[in-house]
Amino acid sequence: MDTTKIPPNPNKKRKTNQNPETTFLINLQSCTKSKDLQTAISLFESALSQNLRLSLHHFNALLYLCSNFATDPSAKDSAIDYGFRVFNHMLSNKAVPNEASVTSIVRLASAKKDGDYAFELIKKMNKDYNLVPRLRTYDPALLCFCENLEAEKAYEVEEHMGSMGVRLEEQEIAALLTVSSETGRVERVYEYLQKLRNSVRCVSEGTAKAIEDWFRREKATEVKGVSFDEGLVKEAVLKNGGGWHGLGWIGDGKWVSKRGSLDENGKCCCCGHQLVNVDIDDAETEKFAESIAGLSMEREVKANFSEFQDWLEQHADYEAIVDGANIGLYQQNFAEGGFSIPQLDAVVKELYTRNGNKWPLIILHNKRLRSLLENPSHRKLVQEWMDEGVLYMTPHGSNDDWYADSILSSVAEILVLFDTFLLLNQCDYFMVSTSKLLMNTYSVLYEYWLYAAVKLRCLLATNDEMRDHIFELLGTNFFLKWKERHQVRYTFVKGNLKLQLPPPYSLVMQESEKGSWHVPISINNDESSQTWLCITRSTVDESCDKAKALENTETSENGHGLCWNDETLNSCNP
């Protein structure tokens, strides 16, 4: 047996003795992971007896653990008591709380139904500590007031949230709708229905029940809707982008609430109402167009884009815009590939036919157009488009030329970046910097056709997903709504064109011109079997029943029907 001693490694770090404060923090973190409140309390008592210097990390770990037990019936009282004791000790030690500290104590205050104290803490954290509350900070106080049916106090919290730039989400809106419903605040209920429509695509089952509860109340039945001029309501719907008017309650009589589905075209099986594809409203459209124009002015020769804007003002009757480069270069990444004029022609002809023999606007870059005209086999078709006035050529010095120059410039910059980051051994930073550089280079390419589609409020034929700076302009939800309503995607299967047009209706809450509501419920992810909440006045529902009876008669005669069959009608009973 070898008894030779192994020499100690001089580079190995010796384990240093931990001070009591560090040991206390490690043990606290262990209690947090194992959710051991009693041991954490014992540790806190021991720390006090030893006069340990407690830091913000110690206090936050204890407060967090106490707040997690505030909803546990068996440990609620002790969690609240010790939580406040920790917080008071924290303040007496002159430790300045952060957002996490305040959020934990707000949860504890709300758990003992003291919403007033919770809300005062939130206001104090901003005023005294210059801390910005988050949604999780407000939630306990807001939900506490809602559960206690203290509607005015709940509205005050909501107002404070708005002043701090904190947006309501579905849970908060549903709670405010419920407290408004239970306290009979009719106009507030309408306001929160609109906020739900604007914030949530499909509501949860709990929110759906809260909506149903309101419309089944006597107070809802007593609501006498304002008699608006039919033209005024239609004008409001058009201005808002379709799917809602926002003018207030319409009609009178008892509300009828049913659950059902839509047919493939968006017609409700319960009431026969046709849902629509919802667009962004007038103000949002103008803001969108101005943002794109502003970016384009920064990216290239200002006169070029101004000239395009002036031209578009004089030619504003197009119903579709075609991204010529995107379609012509689709699936052309092979040896013999190039710009495919047959692909572009197929898309143009299909849109021409679908729009009642009305030409779309084709946008092509200057350099691309010149090369097409120089090709004898393409010249005749391109000349036809030019004669029809449906081809816009971006001027020399913009887009394609800018793009080519920028790519060369970007490649040079990337090589410099690579050398720099290679020396620093920071490849991750190199990848981030490179992607940002190339994204900036690419972003200007679609500003002409995107601006035209937004400004003219028409369809846009492109497979480009436009994933870069546009999201930063107006927000992801805003841009996704616009794309869903306007983008026409395409594919070629064995040379045959297939267009994917925008859906006939949007999967969002909708308010009809007659005052009825349709609410999608997120029960499953299958749109074809999507459950909808249909809410109409009884007078409207009776007229729908007559229409359905007539439809059923016709169905039995001709043997076909999409939605109003016996099985579907049974599922729509209140």
From TrEMBL:
One Gene Ontology MF term: ribonuclease P activity
Q: Which residues form the PROP1-like PPR domain?
A: 11-222
Q: Does the keyword Repeat apply?
A: yes
What are the names of the required cofactors?
Mg(2+)
Region Disordered: start-end pairs: 1-20
Pfam families, per the entry: PPR_long, PRORP
Give the record's keywords alphabetically. Answer: Hydrolase, Magnesium, Metal-binding, Nuclease, Repeat, tRNA processing, Zinc
Q: Does the keyword Transferase apply?
A: no
Catalyzed chemical reaction(s): Endonucleolytic cleavage of RNA, removing 5'-extranucleotides from tRNA precursor
Q: What is its EC number?
A: 3.1.26.5
In the UniProt record, the signal sequence range is none
PRORP domain segment(s): 263-403, 447-534
Which biological process, per GO, is one annotated for this protein? tRNA 5'-leader removal
What family is this protein classified in? Belongs to the PPR family. P subfamily.
Q: What is this protein called?
A: ribonuclease P
Native organism is: Acer yangbiense
Phylogenetic lineage: Eukaryota, Viridiplantae, Streptophyta, Embryophyta, Tracheophyta
